[in-house]
Specification:
OPRT; orotate phosphoribosyltransferase activity; magnesium; 179 residues; Or_phspho_trans_dom; 28% strand; pyrimidine biosynthesis
């Protein structure tokens, strides 16, 4: 099996939780994909970085990140996976709100102004979290070249309607789930 198949197995074995849950979008579902169980796992995290780099290999960007918390481990995995490729990436974290102390930055990490960046998310149903990150990145002067998620739960149309290319490593069908 390759990285893509290996990561899918981690997702189906560790991240898919059955039972009633309310998603961040407010939608009620019969199952939840808790990707932090995968993105923070010692064997799965390196796969996350490689799979997401492969998914976006034809896009030109030099920094990756998104709204904290879902995007943070993805960005760090991609940062580490990119190091040996000759195309190293920086990572950044978009806070949900600006800090009231210190440097009062909303985006932590290397400066994104004037840079081509990729916005990532672990899973997205409505696109609202990743689009919040996109708005903050644009306000900071970054050029957002696209959005990539590990699992698409339906956000593609909303992200594309916002004028951004959108890719997902896995669909619900790939994981044997129904919307």
């Amino acid at each position: 099996m390759g990285d893509h198949d290996d990561l899918r197995k981690f997702i189906t074995d560790l991240a898919v939780v059955h039972g009633k849950v309310v998603l961040s979008s407010g939608i009620e579902a019969d199952w939840y994909v808790d990707l932090r169980r995968v993105t923070l796992h010692n064997q799965a995290a390196p796969l996350v970085g490689r799979v997401m780099l492969d998914l976006t290999a034809d896009w030109e960007y030099d920094a990756v990140g998104g709204l904290t918390l879902g995007a943070d481990p993805i960005a760090v995995s991609m940062l580490h996976a990119s190091a040996p490729t000759g195309r190293p990436l920086d990572a950044f974290v978009v806070r949900k709100a600006g800090k009231a102390h210190g440097l009062q930055r909303r985006i932590e990490g290397p400066d994104v102004a004037g840079r081509r960046v990729l916005a990532v998310e672990d899973t997205s149903t409505t696109g609202s979290s990743v689009l919040t990150a996109v708005e903050a990145l644009r306000e900071a002067g970054a050029e957002v070249i696209g959005v990539a998620v590990i699992v698409d739960r339906g956000a593609g149309d909303a992200v594309r309607a916002a004028g951004l290319p959108y890719r997902a490593a896995y669909t619900l069908a790939d994981l044997g789930l129904v919307a």
